[in-house]
Amino acid sequence: MVDLPDDTGAPSSNHGVYGISVAAELSGIAVQSLRLYERQGLVTPGRSDGGTRRYSADDLVRLRRISALVDAGVNLAGIARILSLEDDNAELSEANTDLRTANRSLRGARKSARSKKAKNPRNPSVQ
Fold first, then answer.
1. Which position among 4, 43, 62, 82 has the lowest Cβ density within 10 Å, counted as fewest Cβ atoms?
2. What is the dihedral of CA 119, 121, 124, 127, to 10 degrees?
3. Which domain of life is it from (predicted)?
4. Cβ-contact 45, 56 below 8 angstroms
């Protein structure tokens, strides 16, 4: 996947642009906690060629979610499970939307084909 800027010239939301200190400041989470969350697999920032962590806008959203769960008293193992289920749910929702769109297209094509067939019942080339 290529991270192309949007129309405003800003990088895509999944493109890592923030260093760890900036991500800590923007998220309100200590640098050591960010490192811990990465070790636990809760967040996976991109890396520069030199190995420096680069957090994206999507990572910052995820960090805010982690922070809310920590504030609610959920432990890191619970947070990992919650995030995994939320990620799975988002993927299933996207797949469901895609399937509904494809279904609408197929129904439209079938309706169009039936309409053409009804208009030309003796023309075998229109099926």
1. 4
2. 60
3. Bacteria
4. yes
- The first and second tokens of residue 62, run together, are 């995820």
Phi, psi angles (nearest 5°) of residue 3: -90, 90
Q: Which two tokens stand for residue 49?
A: 């060629």
Q: φ and ψ at 53, to 5 degrees?
A: -65, 140
Q: What is the pTM of this model?
A: 0.71
Residues 60 and 85 in one domain: no
Under DSSP, the state recorded for 42 is S
- The CATH number of whichever domain residue 66 belongs to comes to 1.10.1660.10
Q: Which residues, 6+ apart, have CB-to-CB distance to 47 below 8 Å?
A: 16, 53, 54
Are 45 and 54 in contact by the 8 Å Cβ rule? The answer is yes
Domain hosting residue 103, numbered range: 75-127
53 and 88 belong to one structural domain? no
Query: Do 125 and 91 share a structural domain?
Result: yes
Cβ atoms of 34 and 20 within 8 Å: the answer is yes
